[in-house]
Specification:
single chain; mainly alpha; 10 helices; 0% strand
Length: 230
């Protein structure tokens, strides 16, 4: 399978996946976190990495961010801005116990995927509006971090060792992000070597936009229908 076809398949899977398979912390992981008393950095690093690798909404946004970035310094710049944003609200959100509906936060995360795909398609140039991409990526990074914070707040973490465990979780998130992003960037880079990239780049971003619509729609429906946050 060509890298481009694989990427299209992954985006399509994100559209079709059920909310129950989202990246919320549940089961044994949730029980472990809720029952942890005192610092336990390594397991929290593992959980942070796992959370990001399975967080297809976060990864879909990052895929949109790097889709048309050809220079590594630009990739590092935008990924760093995103990391700065989500690290800030992840830590502050949990420590200050910011109360935000996880449905609404995750809906905005879905819309962030739509935003980046629409930008990649040249939509904002067509309507004469263009927000500085650096500001947009940082801003959406803040929202994504708040989404991570709401997932942890639901587990009622023990205050004993909270700071160490929270920082460890965040480090794990960064590690997981680097692993997943390396795979995505590698697939896109290989795809660019094929003529199909030019033909199907727009189609990939249309799928990415649709994935964002579905992700946001699931959360908005959950908010009004009283479902379980994903």
């Amino acid at each position: 399978m060509k890298p481009g076809h694989l990427l299209l398949a992954l985006v399509g899977a994100a559209v079709l996946v059920e909310p129950a398979f989202a990246h919320a912390i549940g089961g044994k992981d949730a029980a472990f976190v809720a029952n942890t008393v005192g610092p336990d950095p390594l397991p929290f690093m593992y959980l942070g990495a796992k959370h990001m690798v399975t967080g297809y909404d976060h990864l879909a946004f990052l895929a949109g961010v790097i889709f048309f970035l050809y220079r590594m310094k630009d990739v590092l710049l935008y990924v760093s801005l995103f990391s700065l944003g989500h690290s800030t609200t992840l830590i502050i959100g949990v420590l200050t116990n910011v109360a935000v509906s996880p449905f609404l936060v995750d809906a905005v995360i879905g819309l962030s995927v739509c935003y980046k795909a629409f930008e990649n398609l040249g939509g904002f140039r067509q309507i004469g509006f263009q927000l500085d991409t650096r500001i947009a990526v940082l801003g959406f990074g803040l929202v994504h971090g708040l989404g991570l914070a709401t997932k942890l707040q639901e587990l009622h973490l023990n205050p004993n060792g909270l700071v160490v465990n929270l920082i460890s979780f965040n480090v794990g998130v960064e590690v997981g992000q680097m692993i997943a992003l390396s795979l995505i960037l590698g697939a896109i880079t290989l795809w660019r070597l094929h003529s199909s990239f030019t033909r199907f780049a727009a189609a990939a971003n249309v799928l990415l936009f649709f994935a964002g619509v579905v992700l946001a729609g699931q959360q908005i429906a959950g908010y009004f229908l009283g479902g379980t946050p994903s």
